């Protein structure tokens, strides 16, 4: 095997050459850093070939060492050089040269140069040594020119930024990638120093590395630079000495990677400070945890103890919920329901029970088999407590309301009997059956009679509403004439309308006659709507009751020319004890129960009720009920 002696004082370059030679199948006799050490090594063990750097440490340069080797030994020499000036080439020509490599070079170029050197060395030992030696020199010149061209191409088109500087950090040469990276043109960079690209707060650190480069011949650091447009860039820089006052720098742009890292860190911070905990479970029994966000500490566990398998996720689930969660997960997995939500209880690291909302995504392999579950769990314990408290309050309120309604429904006889007595005896006294009344007595008795009737009507409405609430009101269907009911209600409200000079009119479809419904409730619906229309219509206005028959439905509307209702007050209609505003209640009276009963009675007939209104113009209340039960 060919043994090679490497004479190179740059450790990094020497190790690079060594690795390339070993890759080519050569054996390394030794690596030395000075000419004196090279001569001593050759004296002890003569190599097959020597790779000699021109600029080396010691009292002799590479050319002088080669001259000494040529005087005593017949060993082929390959020169290494960082640059090729005329003086260097002249010195090389004065020695027996077998090859020349200009740094940096690739492994193929090194292999060819060694093969050529060994070949021409063998040719020298034959008869035509002079002719072949001349051809070798010419070929080496050609290779030297090609090597320099390749070097320039590699330098200019390397994807990483390259620069050459002196020991003071003055930029002497840059490649295209360095210009793209910084945004400066090549000419602009050649007029700058390395330190000019560093932001003020990082200049001291950069100066330390430039000084280290000058003193030790190499440096490495991860730094920050400012682009021409003012944006910040991140990079890794490695600089090595290539001559006594020249340094080659390799710059790797890390801006995208660093920004991505920063965004990932920010996202992690957002996650860790959010109420949601992220999980990645293996699709295995017990759901081993492969990843969990650090905010798992909110549940009293650490991410490490879950990831290393000390705690399985199934260990956290409440025993009373575990079987259900396992069954639901298996069902969703087998039925390819790859996104689903579950609510269950966890036992945290402190022994407390927490309610959890779990959103899970199933990850499958190419065959459709589950590999992982990705999950987002949210602590909903407070929500559950609030929900439970609201439910308890609702049940309590409903129980109280039911008790109230049952009480009022049961008080029907007790409330109506004394009122009927008051109304009846007032009527008897007003008839003067038991003697004449003076004017004041008659006035007072009329007030008692009207108040009693009003109170009885109010109590009747309340009792009806209570019966509806407790489900105690039944429907009594019978066939009757809707026309007769409308006319009867018109007669019943004539006196009330006459007090305000309001005209009550009817417009009834001739096709509409008998319907099957609850007569009492239909009459109550109509009476409440007409009474309301009269109440909220100004003096000398009008109220119209219109009835039509369409598609097996009787549709009745009551239209007035009253005060109307604004859009914002519409939602107050059909609610018990509600008027559109306080002033309406004071001016017109009423409890709001009438419209509530209208809505309930219409609903019991499977009908609908609605209203159309415009302030100061009037309102139209319309309801429909099936014409047959």
Word description of this protein:
This protein is of the alpha+beta class and 629 residues long. 46% of the residues lie in helices and 24% in strands. Helix 2 (35-44) runs parallel beside helix 3, helix 14 packs antiparallel against helix 15 and helix 15 packs across helix 20 (593-604). The longest helix has 31 residues, at 439-469. The chain is rod-shaped and about 165 Å long.
Described by strand count, sense and barrel closure, the largest sheet is: 5 strands, parallel
Helix/strand-derived category reads alpha+beta
Q: Low-confidence segments, ≥5 residues, pLDDT <50?
A: 581-586
Cα gyration radius (Å): 52 Å
Helix content: 40-55%
Q: What is the count of helical runs? A: 20
Spatially, the strands of the biggest sheet line up as: 2-1-3-4-5
Alpha-carbon distance between the two ends:
113 Å
Q: Approximately what portion of the residues adopt beta-strand conformation?
A: 15-25%
Global outline: rod-shaped
What is the strand tally? 22
Mean pLDDT: 84
Summarize the structure in short.
The protein is an alpha+beta fold and 629 residues long.
Helix and strand topology:
Layout (H helix, E strand, L loop, with lengths): L2 E5 L3 H14 L2 E6 L2 H10 L4 E5 L8 H11 L4 E5 L4 H8 L5 E4 L4 H18 L4 H29 L3 E5 L5 E4 L1 H7 L3 H5 L12 H14 L1 E9 L5 E12 L2 E8 L1 H18 L3 E7 L6 E4 L10 H5 L11 H16 L4 E9 L5 E12 L5 E10 L1 H30 L1 H19 L8 H31 L7 E5 H11 L1 H5 L4 E6 L5 E5 H17 L6 E9 L2 E8 L21 H7 L4 H12 L3 E7 L3 E9 L3
Parallel strand pairs: 1-2, 1-3, 3-4, 4-5, 17-19
Antiparallel strand pairs: 6-7, 6-10, 8-9, 9-10, 11-12, 11-15, 13-14, 14-15, 16-18, 19-20, 20-22, 21-22
Helix pairs in contact: 2-3, 13-15, 14-15, 15-20, 16-18, 18-20
């Amino acid at each position: 095997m060919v043994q090679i002696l490497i004479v190179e004082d740059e450790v990094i370059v020497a190790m690079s050459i060594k690795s390339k030679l070993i890759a080519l199948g050569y054996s390394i006799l030794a690596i030395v850093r000075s000419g004196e050490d090279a001569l001593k090594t050759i004296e002890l063990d003569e190599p097959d070939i020597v790779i000699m750097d021109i600029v080396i440490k010691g009292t002799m340069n590479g050319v002088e060492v080669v001259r000494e080797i040529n005087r005593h030994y017949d060993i082929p020499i390959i020169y290494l050089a960082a640059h090729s000036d005329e003086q260097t080439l002249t010195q090389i020509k004065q020695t027996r040269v077998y090859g020349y490599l200009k740094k940096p070079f690739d492994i193929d170029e090194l292999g060819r140069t060694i093969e050529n050197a060994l070949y021409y060395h063998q040719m020298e030992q034959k008869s035509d040594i002079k002719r072949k030696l001349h051809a070798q020199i010419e070929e080496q010149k050609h290779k030297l020119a090609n090597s320099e061209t390749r070097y320039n191409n590699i330098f200019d088109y390397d994807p990483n930024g390259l620069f050459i500087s002196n020991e003071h950090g003055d930029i002497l040469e840059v490649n295209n990638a360095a210009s793209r990276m910084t945004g400066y043109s090549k000419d602009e960079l050649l007029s700058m120093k390395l330190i000019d690209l560093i932001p003020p707060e990082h200049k001291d650190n950069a100066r330390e590395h430039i000084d280290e480069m000058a003193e030790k011949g190499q440096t490495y650091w991860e730094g920050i630079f400012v682009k021409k447009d003012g944006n910040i860039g991140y990079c890794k820089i490695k600089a090595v000495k290539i001559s006594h006052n020249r340094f080659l720098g390799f710059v790797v742009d890390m801006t995208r990677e660093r920004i991505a890292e920063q965004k990932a860190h920010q996202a992690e911070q957002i996650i860790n400070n959010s109420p949601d905990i992220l999980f990645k479970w293996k699709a295995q029994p017990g759901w081993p945890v492969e990843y969990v966000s650090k905010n798992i500490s909110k549940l009293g566990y650490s991410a490490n103890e879950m990831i290393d398998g000390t705690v399985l996720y199934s260990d956290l689930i409440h025993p009373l919920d575990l079987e259900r969660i396992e069954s639901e997960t298996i069902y969703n997995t087998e039925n390819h329901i790859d996104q689903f939500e579950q609510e269950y209880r966890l036992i945290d690291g402190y022994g407390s029970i927490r309610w959890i909302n779990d959103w899970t995504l199933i990850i499958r392999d190419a065959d459709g088999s589950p590999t992982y579950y990705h999950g987002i769990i949210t602590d909903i314990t407070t929500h559950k407590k609030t929900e439970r408290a609201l439910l308890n309050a609702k049940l309590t309120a409903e129980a109280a309301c039911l008790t109230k309604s049952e009480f009022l429904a049961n008080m029907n006889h007790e409330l109506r009997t004394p009122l009927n007595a008051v109304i009846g005896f007032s009527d008897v006294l007003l008839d003067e059956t038991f003697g004449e009344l003076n004017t004041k007595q008659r006035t007072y008795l009329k007030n008692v009679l009207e108040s009693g009737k009003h109170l009885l009507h109010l109590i009747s409405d309340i009792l009806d509403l209570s019966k509806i609430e407790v489900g105690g009101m039944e429907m009594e269907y019978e066939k009757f004439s809707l026309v007769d009911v409308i006319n009867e209600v018109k007669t019943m409200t004539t006196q009330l309308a006459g007090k305000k000079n309001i005209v009550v009119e009817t417009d009834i479809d001739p096709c509409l006659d008998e319907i099957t419904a609850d007569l009492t409730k239909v009459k109550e619906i109509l009476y409440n709507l007409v009474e309301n229309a009269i109440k909220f219509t100004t003096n000398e206005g009008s109220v119209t009751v219109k009835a039509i028959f369409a598609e097996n439905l009787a549709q009745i509307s009551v239209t007035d020319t009253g005060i109307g209702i604004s859009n914002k007050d519409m939602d107050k209609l059909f609610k018990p004890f509600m008027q559109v505003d306080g002033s309406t209640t004071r001016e017109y009276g009423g409890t709001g129960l009438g419209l509530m009963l209208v809505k309930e009675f219409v609903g019991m007939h499977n009908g609908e009720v609605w209203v159309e209104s415009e302030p100061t113009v009037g309102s139209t209340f319309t309801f429909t009920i099936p014409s047959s039960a």
